[in-house]
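Hello forum,

I keep getting stuck at the same step: I have a sequence, I want structure tokens, and every attempt I make locally crashes halfway through. Rather than fight my setup again tonight, could one of you with a working pipeline run this one for me? It's a single chain of 275 residues.
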Amino acid sequence: MDKAFYVQSLVPKDIATNTYYVTRGSRPPTMDLKIRDNVFVYVNVDFVPGFDLDNEVISIPGAVVSTFKDTLVTFPRYCLMKWINKENKYIDENDKNFIWRSCSSSFERFMFDLCVVSEERCYIRTACRVMKTLVHMLRHRQNQAAILLSSYHLKTVAMYCILLLAVPTKLTSPGYRLSGVREALGYFLSFLKSALEKEVLPDFFLGNEHLDKIFPGSYFSKIRIKYNLFDKETPELVKAAKFGFPEFERVLSGCFDAWNLNPKVVNFFETRLDD
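Reply #2:
Ran it on my machine without issues. Output:
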């Protein structure tokens, strides 16, 4: 919805219209809407039905929100149906009608809201946007990695970058700061390369032992079960994706720094892929 409102705001007021054409698609449980007016471009909006479970109030550490005191933030938590995903071989056929999941969307939104108050996190957000543009471009070349990777996969890598590089942990030296987008893009590519090689991309909110650094005591920080986001993808495509990654590096040659990455950070991410 944010994207839809942003695109609408770009329409000059003198030619704004109240006439819209809506086309509905079907990608259960998501309802896809393509909205077009008669003066501008298409806008895609996704609606996902779910149950409102509760609100979770979390005290976010001051070091995370770049203030000197903790801040109380309310996070709505929803339950979404997952039974419709018939491709996941890890879900027993007899159980598929009963599988639901707790949605982390409000926590994901907060992760990227954190970028507003930090220049370093803005570097990571920009690196993520660069990667989204690259993936979109390389899909037209039938690059296996680009075909596999979704926007959510890239957002997950970005959230790991934010946690490991722009939130105080034992992994980074006191006073460490990202130098710019080139360095952020170097970490992003390093994490993504490891994930593709090992065919594992861990869900950021499940089984993440460092989640308490941002969301102390939250529902998700107490979950120890880990989930590989690639599990629901076609196994043949996951295996082939690693062979498409070198083209990512070739296209971005000269745009990223891969020589001065903190080995403790890189090794920690790789360790998560082995767990």
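The mean pLDDT is 85. If your local run keeps crashing, start a new thread with the error log.
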